[in-house]
Amino acid sequence: MTSINDPAAASVADLAPHLDLFDPAHAERLWEVLAHARSACPVLKTDADDGYYIVTRYDDLRTVLEDPQTYSSEQAGLRGVPIKMPPLTEDPPRHLEYRRLLNRYLSRSFLSQYADDIRETARELLEKLIPAGHFDFMTDYAIPFTSRNLARVILDDGNAERIQRAISIATRISGEGEPEAFFEISALAEELLRERAASGSHRDDVLSAIAGGTVEGRPLTMEEQVGATTILFTGGLDTTKAALGNIARHLAEDPALEQRLRDPGWVKGDLDEFLRYESPIMFMARTVTRDTELGGCPLKAGDRVAVHYASANRDGSRFDHPDQLDFDRERNPHAAFGLGPHRCIGLHFARLQIEIAFSELLSRVTNLRIPPGAQVESAVGVVLTHEHLPVTFDLRQPRQ
Fold first, then answer.
1. Does residue 174 have a pLDDT over 60?
2. I need a labelling partner for 282 at 20 to 30 A (CA). Which of 76, 197, 311, 328 fits?
């Protein structure tokens, strides 16, 4: 690999062939390089990580995501995945069977039964945070909020100690990215799944659907069960807490947005524009299964492709003035939740949590802002998120 000694000083044309999507120094130039690629070389070949292609335009991204026969999801992580995690790492037709097991339990109607629990979680957190007049939106609110909700909805375990352990592990995954924590949540998932199977009882929840599910006429193996539980837990954690933080930063930097978010209808339109503008999951990977061509670029079987959702969502051929938040778009077919058969199965859960998190926050406070001189720390890689987002606010006066 040819290195770039000073990414900040390199020309965009020189940096593009070496763009490393995981390098913090390259992240400072990311949007500039992606814009260059969309106009000059939309399927950008980089020599990072032994070489892969970055799909930067919306139409090319759609082509890849809607053609699983040519672009396989079996290694959906650009740097690989430690275990198989269906349905994420499966291709049709088997992929569809896994989704059928889970669709009902991640539908808006089914999840509505957890709304009061989710709201109570937000209230409990805010009750402790509000009196201080400031808190870190990510570590004090977004991460514990999403961790508790996932433990409740995905694991749904009555053992308080074990749920607390799950929350603790999830918080470490989300806040610190510890690889060991990933395997700990997998071990905990196996413990729960084996216990659920041994009990002989079937509860109407996600875990029982996985434990008792069948694919291709056979029961899921324990490896498949653990993988499915793990991806629902960890995937749901990262995406939702990232979206919460990204929206909160806009709210803190633009006071005019507060009134928009106080309108209960904001989640039906404005939320999609926030997600388009800053896609929580920046990219995922596909493997080319046969020689083909994409956007004029020849690809060979075995080539690795990064489908860059965030870049596609800034494609000017699909979205007018794409580098601006515009809440008046008539259509917003963003790719933040993916496109095609692998469109995010947890999108309704994410939207429900985002709606409740801000509803409860804004019922208590107004004038959210970032303190002068405070550092907002952002993470680099697959997830577009903030590691720290310090905020202050004013107490909202109750209506007389």
1. no
2. 328
